[in-house]
UniProtKB/TrEMBL annotation:
Residues 354-568 form the Peptidase M24 domain. This is Aminopeptidase P N-terminal domain-containing protein. It comes from the Eukaryota. Residues 50-170 form the Creatinase N-terminal domain. Coiled coil: none annotated. The keyword Repeat does not apply. Pfam families: Creatinase_N, Creatinase_N_2, Peptidase_M24, Peptidase_M24_C. Belongs to the peptidase M24B family. The keyword Heme does not apply. Keywords: Hydrolase, Metal-binding.
Length: 648
């Protein structure tokens, strides 16, 4: 398909962006390109050839394709999986960069093995982030561009902070970062799935714990504190939380496509107006708010109205370059998301709901583990069929809505792929000859769950037992930690790794992520990572919830991970950190940890006491529910799985 040269001129349908003296064009939001009549899937060669032809039309030497949508979402709809279309990689994180002669894809250690299996080396160079000798995206660009070259991207798909950072790196070397009028992948993508716009679900006060009007009022206090007139909200989970609404526009994530602008006197919601029916309008009345509903595509026009009125607007550091650039610098305040910090601290109703949801979820997982041990010798349970059975057990629990993510059901060597998801091509039989790792979760009206257990249904090796036990020691160390208010997440990352580090073992992912209340399975803050400069490392406060998930992965052999969801609660210690306040963790997850994989000689008496106490609580909380659900066999299995460990 031949394209005429694009010139840098502004027209009414486009957003004009000025970057470092260079002007480029941004496209109108969510205005899909005309679909070609021929929807026959294209080859990788054809896709890259067409993109490179477009790059020449736009006078750019490199084009960046992030793995997010216009809301900087980690999990995105099929409509937005542009990086998957050009690379065939199905993981949730990565960045593709295409030049006129090369193509490279960067992803973190969670996906190194998966990307090896999915990326075609004929067309792509896989860059395994974090490994010695692997160039960063910045370094690679600087060595693959000709003098004065331009690098392009979609302004809606890159965070403003990253655009400014990378633009600065390139600018100092004589290159220029620009944004383009249209997304090049969208032009080429001839069989693109349609955008989703599903019905909305009002979340009752019995589950939300706080009316939307109260949340809006708290947000307006932030506006006043920052001498601002309005705030632009682009994160989907923040909008869902603020309005006490849930959706299903993205699989397993109860969110919906929307933007918001909240001022001292108005609430503007930009979404598909067709789904704001009488049920939703009645919900707004119940929540004590009046909402001006506009079309999703009108967000830039909405911002422009406030800008023309001389108002100062707050935007998040995670907002897109398109939204950021629509507000003049002297009318713009940029902060780490105030809503993310508000949402991370659960209210009493949410906290109680999370505990209750985890008990029901624990019953589902226990029933699955019992079932698996009972039927494994029949020789017909695979990673996929096992995950399907676990979903069935979850669906039988009260208040179940959906899964919280695609289960990581991984046997043997597949367990070494940190975020592995079984497919028809990779599906393995689950047997007694290896470690089975099952990482899964559910969405319930009163909470979100995420739990991982690693089990061996046969006889584990000495090395497998050692690895599992060292992971367990770090897991128990983190779970029992006492720490001051606002302690950094890096502290907990080290606690979880120490037993592995003692013998030169490690894992390549973070140790903990926040989790929503009937929202995203990943939310930030908090986070337990080694990088103290991570924006999501905001410090721990009471009623934050996080995962606790150390692991170890032996490529080609097995993976071990243990994961619970923990809640930050007050602790009582003699000195209370000189009045600063003491905190600790309460473990919400109630699923037994397999004792067969524990090497007791590596465990301290205190660790065994801690594990025994946890198992007593698992039996006390999950056991009665199994009996209510008329599953005496699973109850007997649980009784055995939680038996006290006695040191000889």
């Amino acid at each position: 398909m031949k394209h005429t040269k694009r010139y840098l001129v502004g027209i009414s349908a486009l957003l004009v962006l000025v970057v470092g003296g260079g002007v480029a064009l941004g496209r109108a939001l969510n205005k899909d390109d005309d679909l070609m009549e021929d929807t026959t899937p294209k080859t990788m060669d054809a896709i890259l050839t067409e993109i490179r032809s477009l790059m020449q039309d736009y006078s750019i030497e490199a084009y960046i394709i992030p793995s997010v949508d216009a809301h900087n979402s980690e999990y995105i709809s099929l409509h937005d999986r542009r990086y998957q279309y050009v690379t065939n990689f199905t993981g949730s994180a990565g960045t593709a960069i295409i030049t006129l002669s090369k193509a490279a894809f960067w992803t973190d250690s969670r996906y190194h093995l998966q990307a090896e299996n999915q990326i075609d080396p004929t067309y792509w160079t896989l860059m395994k982030e974090g490994l010695i000798g692997v160039p960063s995206r910045d370094e690679w660009l600087l060595t693959n561009l000709s003098p004065g070259a331009q690098v392009g991207t979609d302004p809606f798909l890159i965070a403003s902070t990253e655009f400014e950072r990378l633009g600065g790196v390139l600018g100092r070397q004589g290159y220029r970062m620009i944004t383009l009028e249209r997304n090049l992948v969208d032009i080429v993508w001839n069989n693109r799935p349609p955008q989703t716009s599903e019905d909305l679900l009002p979340l009752a006060l019995a589950y939300s714990g706080q009316r939307s009007s109260d949340k809006i009022q708290a947000l307006r206090v932030v506006l006043q504190e920052n001498s601002a007139n309005a705030i632009v909200v682009s994160a989907l989970d923040e909008i869902a939380w603020l309005l006490n609404l849930r959706g299903s526009d993205i699989s397993y994530n109860p969110v919906f496509f929307a933007y918001m602008i909240v001022s001292h006197g108005n609430i503007h919601l930009f979404t598909n107006p067709d789904r704001i029916n009488e049920t939703i309008r009645a919900h707004f009345r119940t929540e004590g708010i009046v909402v001006d509903v506009r079309d999703y595509r009108d967000i830039l026009a909405g911002i422009e109205e406030y800008v023309k009125g001389g108002n100062r607007l707050i935007v998040s550091t995670a907002c897109s370059q398109a939204l950021y650039a629509a507000i003049p610098a002297d009318q713009r305040t940029q902060l780490y998301s105030v809503l993310a910090k508000m949402k991370a601290v659960k209210n009493e109703v949410e906290a109680i709901g999370m505990r209750r949801a985890h008990i029901r979820d624990g019953a589902a997982v226990v029933r699955y583990l019992h079932w698996l041990e009972k039927v494994v010798d029949e020789g017909n349970v695979t990673e996929l069929s096992g995950a399907a059975q676990l979903r069935e057990f979850r669906s039988q629990q009260d208040m179940f809505v959906d899964l919280s993510f695609t289960a990581i059901s991984a046997f043997g060597p597949n367990g070494a792929i940190v975020h592995y998801s079984p497919t028809e091509e990779t599906d393995r039989l689950i047997t007694r000859d290896g470690i089975y790792l099952i990482d899964s979760g559910g969405q319930y009206l009163d909470g979100t769950t995420d739990v991982t257990r690693s089990i061996h249904l046969g006889e584990p090796t000495v090395f497998q037992r050692e690895c599992f036990t060292r992971v367990l020691k770090g897991f128990l160390s983190l779970a029992s930690a006492v720490f001051p208010v606002k302690a950094s997440g890096t502290v907990f990352d080290v606690l979880a790794r120490k037993a592995l580090w003692d013998v030169g073992l490690d894992y390549g992912h973070g140790t903990g992520h926040g989790i929503g209340s009937f929202l995203g399975v990943h939310e930030y803050p908090p986070s337990f990572v080694s990088n103290s400069a991570s924006p999501s490392n905001q410090g721990m406060v009471e009623n934050m919830f996080s995962s606790n998930e150390p692991g170890y992965y032996e490529p080609g052999q097995f993976g071990v991970r243990i994961e619970d969801i923990v809640q930050v609660v007050k602790a009582s210690v003699p000195y209370d950190f000189n009045g600063r306040g003491a905190l600790t963790f309460y473990t919400n997850t109630v699923v037994p940890i397999q004792q067969k994989l524990i090497e007791l000689s590596l465990m301290s008496a205190a660790e065994i006491t801690q594990l025994n106490a946890y198992h007593r609580r698992v039996l006390d909380e999950v056991g009665p529910l199994l009996q209510q659900q008329d599953d005496p066999d699973a109850f007997r299995w649980l009784t055995d799985a939680t038996k006290e460990i006695v040191m000889s």
